[in-house]
């Protein structure tokens, strides 16, 4: 099962789709990491669109009930179509396969309070989504090891860098090429930090996360339109 535009869908078979039936051509993991063969790195617009679509998908899952959760949010479970439309996958798989099924989870995405991977919560989903956001923004793996050869998970590494006011060092170098979106990038970074807070009660609900990402994207679009208009108004010499 996967979630698209906030609607839960089942896989279907079609000759023009890949075997998983979603019509997707790759995973977010591949889009971030595989830059070989002339592939263009993801730009700000694409990354923020992926973040919004994924947030809406997870928020929809949470809206179906107070205990409803995905339980295995990670970049390899966010699929992309050839037009880079994002779909959250792997939801409902344990139900279809059976109670003995235990999906593969990457430790870097797991919330600190989760000691049993079969017992997850909406707040744990929010933490995992925060790590996904950080991965999109930094281009780094969720178990990125840095600083004095100490192994730090991605949220703690980002917080340590931001604390030292080296915020620019956090972002993927590819994103630093884009002008007029610095403020929006920092806003999305702050949201990711909020989502990956150590204490569950400090994390926002996924509905709020989706709303904030939408507002950030709208602000980004407005800033670009103003900048383009200003450039167009410059007198020619």
Task: Tell me what you see in this structure.
The chain has a single domain (2-97, 109-232), classed as Transferase(Phosphotransferase), domain 1, CATH 1.10.510. 42% of the residues lie in helices and 8% in strands. The protein has seven helices and seven strands. The chain has a five-stranded antiparallel β-sheet. Strands 6-7 form a two-stranded antiparallel ribbon. The termini are far apart. The model is unreliable at 11-20 and 93-102 (pLDDT under 50).
Number of strands: 7
Distance between the termini: 59 Å
Overall shape: it is: globular
Beta-strand percentage range? 5-15%
Ordered list of secondary-structure elements with their pairings:
Layout lengths: L1 E3 L2 E3 L16 E2 H6 L10 H20 L14 E3 L5 E4 L3 H5 L24 H17 L6 E2 L3 E2 L2 H10 L18 H14 L10 H27 L5
Antiparallel strand pairs: 1-2, 1-5, 3-4, 4-5, 6-7
Helix pairs in contact: 2-4, 2-7, 4-6, 6-7
GO molecular function, one term: protein kinase activity
Protein name: Protein kinase domain-containing protein
Pfam families: Pkinase
Features:
alpha+beta, 237 residues, 7 strands, 7 helices, globular, 5-stranded antiparallel beta sheet, Transferase(Phosphotransferase), domain 1, two-stranded antiparallel ribbon
Quick rundown:
InterPro entries: At_inactive_RLKs, Kinase-like_dom_sf, Prot_kinase_dom. This protein is an alpha+beta fold and 237 residues long. Helix content is 42%, strand content 8%.
């Amino acid at each position: 099962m996967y979630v698209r535009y906030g609607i839960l869908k089942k896989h279907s078979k079609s000759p023009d789709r890949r075997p998983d039936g979603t019509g997707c051509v790759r995973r977010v993991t591949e889009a971030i990491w595989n830059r070989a063969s002339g592939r263009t790195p993801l730009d700000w617009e694409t990354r923020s669109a992926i973040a919004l679509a994924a947030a809406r998908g997870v928020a929809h899952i949470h809206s179906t009930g107070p205990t409803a959760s995905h339980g295995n949010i990670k970049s390899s479970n966010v699929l992309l179509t050839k037009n880079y439309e994002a779909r959250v996958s792997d939801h409902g798989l344990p139900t279809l396969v059976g109670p003995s099924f235990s999906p593969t989870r990457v430790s870097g995405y797991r919330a600190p309070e989760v000691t049993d991977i079969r017992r997850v919560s909406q707040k744990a989903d929010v933490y995992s989504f925060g790590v996904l956001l950080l991965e999109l923004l930094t281009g780094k793996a969720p178990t990125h090891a840095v600083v004095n050869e100490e192994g730090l998970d991605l949220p703690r590494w980002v917080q340590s860098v931001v604390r030292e006011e080296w915020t620019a060092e956090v972002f993927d170098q590819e994103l630093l090429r884009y002008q007029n979106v610095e403020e929006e990038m920092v806003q999305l970074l702050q949201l990711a930090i909020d989502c990956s807070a150590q204490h569950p009660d400090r994390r926002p609900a996924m509905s709020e996360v989706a709303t904030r990402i939408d507002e950030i994207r709208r602000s980004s679009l407005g800033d670009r339109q103003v900048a383009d208009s200003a450039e167009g108004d410059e007198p020619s010499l």
